[in-house]
Design goal:
Oligomer: homodimer
CATH superfamily of chain A: Winged helix-like DNA-binding domain superfamily/Winged helix DNA-binding domain
CATH class of chain A: Mainly Alpha
Number of domains of chain A: 1
Shape of chain A: elongated
Order of helices and strands of chain A: HHEHHEEH
Helix content of chain A: 55-70%
Distance between the termini of chain A: 43 Å
Strand content of chain A: 5-15%
Strand order of the largest sheet of chain A: 1-3-2
Largest sheet of chain A: 3 strands, antiparallel
Radius of gyration of chain A: 19 Å
Number of strands of chain A: 3
CATH topology of chain A: Arc Repressor Mutant, subunit A
DNA sequence: CGAATCGTTAACCACATGGTTAACCGTAGC
DNA sequence: GCTACGGTTAACCATGTGGTTAACGATTCG
């Protein structure tokens, strides 16, 4: 669902993880270093990203490799695109409409 | 902040309101009819949208007119665009990388 | 003026979220 | 085999979120 994507991205740490994974797959340790929270906290964020389908996990030996699942994030981006198209088309009209109405 | 935009859009009712406002400004009653929650609940959602700068309010008589503030939502959309650009460029590589590594 | 309308504020409640520490599990390396 | 490493699970806690009902405030209309 689109809602899940936005929820997943609504936390800065999770968005940070997604940004790093945008540069390529990485282990949990590498993808999540430097956020200043404990490992269990990271683990929970990863669970959210995985359950919403934004991130995929592949266990290899003792390392867990993470990578993006673009399709799901694409749904959210599509919603954004649609909204932006509306704004672009209507913002000026909207603005004028408001000014007119207040006369 | 970008974070606020995502938070604002992470709730289906708030996203529904934004969608309606995408078609033009509307009063609180019109923009929020049919969501199946009480008026105070609506009021809180509007507060979030307003505080994050996604929605603008203009009080006119006893009616409150709402309209979108595209600039703020644009920040979130930009973030999305950047991520998508990364995916587009790197998804195939990422995929290949994973397969290679598991040999 | 009095009543209806549009919307907010206040007080409260249940549950989700995000963090912690402590303990654990599976794999890798000496 | 034992220890170190990468990461998760369990239990707990504080705070935030999203909803409710009740009451109120301001504007419009008869």
């Amino acid at each position: 669902m689109v809602n899940d994507s936005f929820k997943a991205l609504s936390h800065p740490i999770r968005r940070g993880i997604v940004e790093r994974l945008g540069e390529g797959p990485a282990t949990v340790g590498d993808a999540t270093a430097g956020f200043g929270v404990s490992k269990p906290a990271i683990s929970k964020h990863l669970k959210v990203l995985e359950e919403t389908g934004v991130v995929r996990r592949e266990v290899r030996g003792r390392a867990h490799w993470l990578s993006l699942e673009p399709k799901v994030l694409g749904e959210a981006a599509d919603w954004m695109d649609r909204q932006r198209a509306l704004w672009g088309r209507l913002f000026d009209v909207v603005d004028e409409y408001l000014k007119e109405g207040s006369r």
